[in-house]
Amino acid sequence: MRQLGMRRASLSASLKIGDRRGCCRTPEEEEVHIPFAQDSLVKQWSSMQNVTDRNQEKSKTPIQRNKYLLNINVGGKLFQISYKVAAQYPVTRLGKLAVYTDPMKKLQLCDDYSVQKNEYFFDRDPSIFHYIFHFYCSGVLWIMDEMCPSNFVEEIEYWGIHLKYSQRCCRILLEEKQDELSEYLKIQKELEAELEPLDSAEQFEGKFLGRFRKMIWNLIENPYSSVAAKIIAVLSSFFVLISIVGMTLSTVEEMKHKTGKMWMEQLEMICAIFFTSEYLMRLISSSSFKNFLRAAFNAVDLVAILPFYIQILFENLDEGDALYHEELHKVENVSKLGKVLKLIKLMRIFRILKLARHSTGLRAFGFTIRQCYQQVCCLFLFIAMGVFTFSALMHSVEHDVPGTNFTSIPDAWWWAAVSLSTVGYGDTVPDTVLGRMVAFACISFGIILNGMPISILYNKFSDYYAKLKAHENETSHSLKLSRRIRLKERVLRKLSECCRADPRYHH
Q1: d(CA 500, CA 507)
Q2: Rounded CA separation 155/94 (Å)
Q3: pLDDT by residue (tens digit) across 251-297?
Q4: 438 in Cβ contact with 394 (< 8 Å)
Q5: What distance in Å separates the CA atoms of residue 264 and residue 133, rounded to the nearest whole number?
Q6: Would you tell me how many other CB atoms lie within 10 Å of the CB of residue 366?
């Protein structure tokens, strides 16, 4: 009985009369058959087949080699390129493969070579090689938007193809994506450095009092390590706020009396003692004294406690001068010391920067300003240009008006700055029609100027804040999980000890 066959997958009528091998196949042959349209593109290959299937290869019909085609196997996919086409680009890897006659040089260009199939194997990305293959066929290197720019550039550098063969529009888009990617990676690296603590727990191993310093470091620098560390972080923020409130109340007239002044001085002393102990604990627990001094937060902590001790020093000098020197020049020196003392007291306002150590929002704001310093400087430049321009125009149209406040350009600077910020105090206003037109132009320029950087700064701030918050939540979650695991281990250990101590357990 005649065995049934299956029709071939091709729709082309390319059959010869009397030839059944091309038209009909058994079901087993049809399963392993690849349609002729894809036969040269997809082909599974491994160099180990040369060893395992050597006996089978001998029994098969020998492969007909085409001396005009270069068989390239890239990641398991077979491509055929004409020697003449590849030789048109002799600088490229495939061009050298087509030009070289020395077999050893050819083997240095590829990863493997199949002698039976005459295939050069390359362990590279076959999806990107489609564009390389198209380049040899058409002479134009096309770049798709969905491809990773770093991966694409790495692949074309491997194949020895320059970006100059691509279209200008594709090249511009690729360079823009590369710049965006490099900027993104740079910001990610800086964010990781921002989130990275100054020291790590591993740096205390093998050092003097390493275990004790590690315990202090976790207590001060890692609020999520324990309940006590979280309490210290809350106390630090609380004392900062109390110190700022005390400094503010000390300027009130009712608090300048003897009783109020005494209470404010005692409050300031308590805050200074807490800040000093906190700074000394950080100094003791630091693994590197040099890195400790270079850290920005530690510099803020030092500025927070220095005014208190400098104030005590200057007050002692002030009392000494008042008691033992009555000359006029000594009295003048005392008044100068009083002015310096007021300035030093004002430095206590920088204590509010200590909140940035435990505030994700303040850290994100500072990081945003550092990353957008070019845009911020450009904004200040535009403001300065607007102030100088509109103050000069206002002075030129208003200086002849009797009783005007625009007597000079520097006198008009304040009006221009207030108008550009769209605040408009109304303390200085133009009187002429031309002056009002200049004022309208100044206010319009200020509205445009104020609206420019808001979207940029806000988008970057929200992005950085989200990343910092995500890292903070991840850190707290991992620490909570590790504490739970340690708690379970302690409970199991205690239960096992109790079971071993119970006499009924032994019976």
Answers
A1: 11
A2: 13
A3: 888 777 777 788 888 888 898 899 899 888 888 888 777 878 887 78
A4: yes
A5: 80
A6: 16
Q: pLDDT tens, 174-202?
A: 888 888 888 888 888 877 776 666 555 56
The Cα-based distances of 321 to 98, 106, 311, 314, 415 in angstroms read 95, 92, 15, 10, 45
Locate 404 and state its tokens.
């005007």
Residue 82 tokens, joined: 């004409």
- The DSSP bridge pattern shows strands 24-25 and 112-114 to be unpaired
Q: What is the C-alpha to C-alpha distance for residues 395 and 404, in angstroms, rounded to an integer? A: 10
Can you name the residues that pair with 154 across neighbouring β-strands?
none
Span 106-120, mean pLDDT?
A: 89
Q: Distance between CA 165 and CA 162 in Å, rounded?
A: 6
Q: Which helix (H) or strand (E) holds 344?
A: helix 328-346
Secondary structure class of 119 (helix, strand, coil): strand
Q: Which tens digits make up the pLDDT trace of 380-406? A: 898 999 999 999 999 888 888 888 888
Q: Are 185 and 279 in contact (CB under 8 A)?
A: no
**Which amino acid type is present at position 155?**
E
Q: Are the beta carbons of 210 and 204 closer than 8 angstroms?
A: yes
Q: Where are the beta strands (DSSP E) in 20-68?
A: 24-25
CA distance 166 to 159: 14
- Model confidence, pTM: 0.54
In this predicted structure, the answer to whether residue 243 has a pLDDT above a threshold of 50 is: yes
